[in-house]
Each structure stands twice: as structure tokens, then as C-alpha cells.
Amino acid sequence: MIHTRVIVVKNPDEMGKAAADLFETAIAAKPACVIGLATGSTPLPLYRELIAREKAGKIDFSRVRSANLDEYKGLAPDHPQSYRKFMQENLFDHISIKPENTIVPLGLAEDIPAMCQAYEDQIEDWGGVDLQLLGIGHDGHIGFNEPEDTFPGMTHEVKLTDMTIDANKRFFDSIDDVPKAAVTMGIGTIMAAKKIVMVVTGADKKEILRKTFWGPVDPQVPSSILQFHPDVTLICDEAAYPF
């Protein structure tokens, strides 16, 4: 754990406020900044707080650009369980960010590699991600970068593990409906962000947090690569903190 700053909070709402402080600072310093965003239940307190702060006049999203970590392969943007739909309902529809300034990988792309390259090109054209939000999976996946023998570089298609499919089945009618593949930013794309904020809640994440920041760097624990990033802030609740 070389550079990581750790903020331990009492509950998810405090986590949302602490993370929102970092977003507010980043946007104030660079109104047209690029933020990398994540889906799932953990970021929801942050998104609620960001919406409230813009309504209160503390944040202005009108020039901000955003790039999402990932999307299920095969789901249309308006599918109830697509990550584009999630972002619209939980953040984009409630703030002043311009639709053309929000990108999410296209799960229905006919040519996935070409779409992935275009995604990388768009992020590069914007000048790179200034602040990347991350959650973490029980196996250490960040985005949908699952445990592998190497750290994948750029945005790519990935086959989801049984653990990830099982973790996501609660969002679908049955486990058979859970997509078996996704498109995700690569580890290299994530590590290229200037600043990273990871939000984690719950005792079930305690062990993987210990491995991530206090264990060896190993592609079998994809999140452990974050130990090599120069500016990571971990915000976790007391239940998730390993010590």
C-alpha cells in the first residue's frame, strides 16, 4: 500500500458525502473535467449527494464529461438492467450534464473491438480521466476486469465469472437472464486516470480490501494493481475496513 489515502466512515451516507467532497473539489478546479463513473448499489449515496449539491448550487455539471467503466454485452441502452439506463435514472437525468458528454460502452455494438478502440479514442480526445470512481467485487474485480494471469490494458470484452454472474443475478428475473459477457475499461485505462476514488461498504468486502491494499500485487486480485497508482483514495465504512 504505497500511496493510498484511507478515509473510514460510519455508514454509506457518510461515504457518499466524503466522495462527493472529492468530486466537488475536482469540478471546481476544472469545470470541464472528465469523470469516470461506476454502477451498482455502492455509489448510490454518492450520486444522491451529487444531485443534491448541484441543486444547492455547489456543483455545476454543465461542462463535465463522463465515461462509464462498463456495460453488459447484448443489452440495449434502454434495457432496464443496462448500465446506461442505471446512470440515466440515478444521476444523468437529475443533473445538468449534457447527453453528448456522457459515454457508456455500447453493449449492442456489432464490432466490439472497434467500439472499444473508439471508446479509448474518445477518452484520449477529452484529455484522459481526471477522477475515476471505482467499486470492488468480492474477487477483486474493478470494472469487469476479472482475475486473470495478466492485467488487461485497454477497453475490451470480458467473459464474466460464475461469481460475478451469481452476484448480479439479483437484478434479473433469473440467473439465466444475466449476461455472460461485458465490455469494460481495461486495467490500463483505469490506471491512466489522474486520481482514483474507491468506495466500499459492508463487512463482506473486508477480506478483499485487505488483499487489495495490504497484500501482494497479483492479477488474480485485479484491484491490487491500485497499489502502484500515485493518487488513490479509499473511502470505506467501518464494517469494510480490514483493521
Notable characteristics:
243 residues; alpha/beta; Rossmann fold; 7-stranded parallel sheet; 10 strands; 30% helix; globular
Describe the fold and architecture.
The chain has 243 residues and is α/β, with parallel strands linked by helices. The protein has one domain (5-201, 216-237): Rossmann fold, CATH 3.40.50.1360. Helices cover 30% and strands 17% of the residues. It is built from seven helices and ten strands. It has helices at residues 12-29, 44-55, 83-90, 112-125, 162-168, 187-191, 206-214, and strands at 5-9, 34-37, 65-68, 70-72, 102-103, 131-134, 156-159, 181-184, 195-200, 232-237. The protein has a seven-stranded parallel β-sheet with strand order 1-10-9-6-2-3-5, covered by helices on one side. Helix 2 (44-55) links the parallel strand 2 (34-37) and strand 3 (65-68). The radius of gyration is 17 Å and the shape is globular.
